[in-house]
Write a sequence for this structure.
């Protein structure tokens, strides 16, 4: 193995380790037993299917929720993984000081202006969410809330299209599965 390849693998392992430690004890969705890190790993796995995969995109996929959902900050991400990765993570980080409805509206509005890397990760993130809804929506949601979440994911994905047919097709498949599960 060449040194550059080994360095890349080390950085991926470091990003996964940081995400695993940062999200330790977190569960995906209210009332679920699934560790949150499984979502992070699923998003990274989905992004890895893209023919345009590069190291920075994979690193940002692993770290996409670290700043938004933990006490880690963007300065730490930049110090450990560089400005390119931090920039993508920043694009994907919702402003938690805003009400949920405003965050969702901003996701729809901002998605078309995302960088290519952020678009790929957001498509994988939304596909992962839909897969989770199809498998078992959180019990407290009920079908109407779950359907609204599917529609929200579709609206965000609409602004991400035209870049990565592989990830778009995977998103569409998960949306179809979620629709079937909720019908």
């Amino acid at each position: 193995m060449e040194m550059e390849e080994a360095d890349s693998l080390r950085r991926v392992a470091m990003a996964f380790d940081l995400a695993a430690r940062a999200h330790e004890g977190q569960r995906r969705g209210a009332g679920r037993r699934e560790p949150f890190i499984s979502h992070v790993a699923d998003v990274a796995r989905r992004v890895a299917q893209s023919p345009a995969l590069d190291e920075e995109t994979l690193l940002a996929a692993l770290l996409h929720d670290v700043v938004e959902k933990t006490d880690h900050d963007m300065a730490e991400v930049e110090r450990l993984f560089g400005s390119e990765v931090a920039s993508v993570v920043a694009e994907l980080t919702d402003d938690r000081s805003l009400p949920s409805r405003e965050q969702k509206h901003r996701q729809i509005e901002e998605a078309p202006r995302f960088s290519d890397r952020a678009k790929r990760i957001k498509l994988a993130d939304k596909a992962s969410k839909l897969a989770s809804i199809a498998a078992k929506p959180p019990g407290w949601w009920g079908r109407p809330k779950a359907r609204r979440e599917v529609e929200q994911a579709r609206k965000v994905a609409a602004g991400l299209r035209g870049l990565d047919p592989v990830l778009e097709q995977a998103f569409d498949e998960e949306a179809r599965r979620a629709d079937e599960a909720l019908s």
